[in-house]
Design a protein that fits this description.
The chain is an alpha+beta fold. The chain is about 55% helix and about 15% strand. Bound molecules: adenosine-5'-diphosphate.
């Protein structure tokens, strides 16, 4: 129930209660006053006529006294006066209204007042009956009986009760209507506006001064406080957005710094890798320049020079692509292509350390990823694996499908994933170090060789893609890092065969 209605109802009930108590008190006082009045009238009349009739009896006999009783009775409209016998067996017309047993006290008191006893379902209200002894007492055992009906009193009380009830109902209705109208105007409507405004602020629509209540009461103060809160919230949100933007920019810079670190390593390895094609080009060029070669031989040399140039251009382009800064953008991509490209980029570094890189790629559906970011993840993992491996070892990258429960937010349900395992047989990670390897700036590499950012960046990127990274490692035996990426349900049945690499579905080895 609405607050205004509750207050209104409480007020109406309160008014009703007060008026009802007032009415009951008033009615019972009226009843008492009536009773006192009637008794007083009876007493005055009885004390006045008892000595007169007693004297009449004493002086002129019973018959004269009875005549006087009848005269007095005839003169009174509301009170019936008669002489009643108090003997054991009175005649019916002189029998008292009240049972003689209730009149025992009359002998001592001289005057006795009591209400008639009504038996059964009589509609008539009881009469007030007053008995008075004559003074001086006559020879016959009897008393003067004054009887008066209480019907007028009952009718008056009924009318009073009825009037009071009407007044109570009228007051309650008027109060109710007034409270409903004023409650709706001063409480209901402003409170509804406050609620709507609070919802609007909660939903982010905290426009300045949208709620202007002109009331100078608590609700008006509340509206002002809400508006102030809305302004504070807007300001806090603005500050929060700035902080988040700054954090994102910093994160981007860190990620780029990480890429440049790898690019430096790759460039150094590439310089070494370019030596072979350059030697080949120079040899072919010198042969052509020396002359004396058939047109077919010159053609062969030119073709070889073009092929080697193409290879060098491709290697340099991939490296430049990796270092270039591009806005984050998720597109459907083939993990096979991504793994192959990563393999191409890192092969010179692996070769420099006499480490073999192998890839095993099962048929998997495409994934929606930011290709550059995911490549950064793979490069981090493969480079770490190469660094941890000794000469002649193999680092294998496997792509497949799995169902896992270790996804963020997956609760206990298994989620279908595409997974990339990067496995090495290198030094492994000690148990004491394992919990810290994803911390930013944690590194066990000598100063200048590691930034400690690779795994932390990799985990952030994978988490941003709704995936997770798991690690298994044993000291002296090697480590396996597994990247799980959720499969889009609508792509679950697809395979990325359209973007397949020559190695897809087979095991390819490069060294
Ligand atoms: P960095 O490579 O610059 O040290 P990372 O965040 O990539 O930073 O790695 C943090 C640490 O995790 C490494 O210094 C190393 O101790 C450990 N680590 C990561 N990958 C491997 C791995 N394949 N084998 C052994 N240790 C690893």
């Amino acid at each position: 129930m609405r607050l205004a209605r509750k207050l209104g109802l409480a007020l109406v009930l309160g008014v009703w209660l007060v008026l009802a108590v007032f009415a009951i008190t008033r009615l019972s006082r009226e009843r008492e006053l009536f009773d006192v009045d009637m008794r007083g009238d009876h007493r005055v009349l009885a004390t006045t006529v008892a000595p007169v009739i007693g004297a009449q009896w004493h002086n002129q006999g019973e018959a004269a006294a009875m005549r006087m009783v009848r005269r007095i009775d005839a003169a009174r409209a509301h009170i019936t006066i008669r002489w009643v016998s108090l003997t054991d067996s009175p005649l019916p017309e002189s029998r008292p209204i009240v049972a003689p047993s209730r009149l025992a006290a009359l002998a001592d008191q001289g005057i006795l007042q009591l209400y008639e006893e009504r038996t059964g379902a009589s509609a008539e209200p009881p009469r007030l009956v007053t008995y008075a002894r004559l003074v001086p007492p006559p020879p016959t055992n009897g008393a003067l009986e004054l009887a008066e009906s209480t019907a007028p009193k009952a009718a008056y009380l009924r009318a009073t009760a009825y009037d009071t009830l009407i007044a109570i109902v009228a007051v309650a209705v008027v109060c109710g209507l007034l409270v409903a109208a004023l409650g709706a105007h001063y409480v209901g409507r402003p409170v509804s506006r406050l609620i709507a405004r609070a919802r609007e602020i909660g939903a982010g629509g905290a426009e300045r001064g949208a709620l202007a209540l002109k009331q100078r009461d608590e609700l008006g103060e509340l509206a002002t406080a809400i508006e102030r809160m809305a302004e504070d919230l807007t300001e806090a949100r603005r500050r929060e957005v700035k902080v988040v933007e700054a954090q994102i920019a910093m994160l981007e810079q860190l990620r780029h710094a990480d890429r440049l670190t790898h690019a430096g390593q790759m460039a150094a390895a590439l310089a070494h890798e370019l030596g072979t094609p350059l030697n080949l080009i120079r040899g072919h060029a010198q042969r052509v320049l020396r002359g004396g070669r058939s047109p077919e031989q010159v053609m062969d040399s030119v073709t070889a020079i073009a092929a080697q140039s193409e290879r060098m251009t491709e290697l340099v382009r991939k490296l430049l692509d990796y270092t270039r800064r591009r806005p984050a953008q998720r597109t459907p991509a083939s993990l096979a292509d991504l793994v192959t490209a990563t393999n191409d980029l890192l092969t010179p570094i692996a070769a420099g350390k006499q480490v073999r890189l192998t890839t095993t790629i099962d048929s998997v559906p495409p994934v929606r990823v930011d290709v550059d970011q995911l490549q950064q993840v793979l490069i981090n993992l493969v480079l770490n694996a190469v660094h941890a491996s000794s000469e002649g070892a193999t680092v294998s990258v496997r792509v497949g499908s799995e169902a896992t429960v270790s996804m963020p937010g997956s609760a206990r349900e298994k989620v279908s994933c595409t997974v990339v395992h990067v496995e090495d047989t290198g030094v492994g990670i000690p148990e004491s170090v394992l919990p810290r390897i994803f911390d930013p700036f944690f590194t066990t590499k000598p100063s200048g060789e590691g930034t400690g950012l690779g795994l932390s960046i990799a985990r952030d990127i994978v988490n941003e893609h709704g995936g997770s990274i798991a690690v298994r490692s044993e000291v002296g035996k090697g480590s396996t890092f597994s990247v799980y990426l959720p499969v889009e349900p609508s792509w679950a049945g697809l395979s990325s065969s359209s973007t397949t690499t020559p190695e897809r579905g087979t095991s390819s080895t490069s060294s």
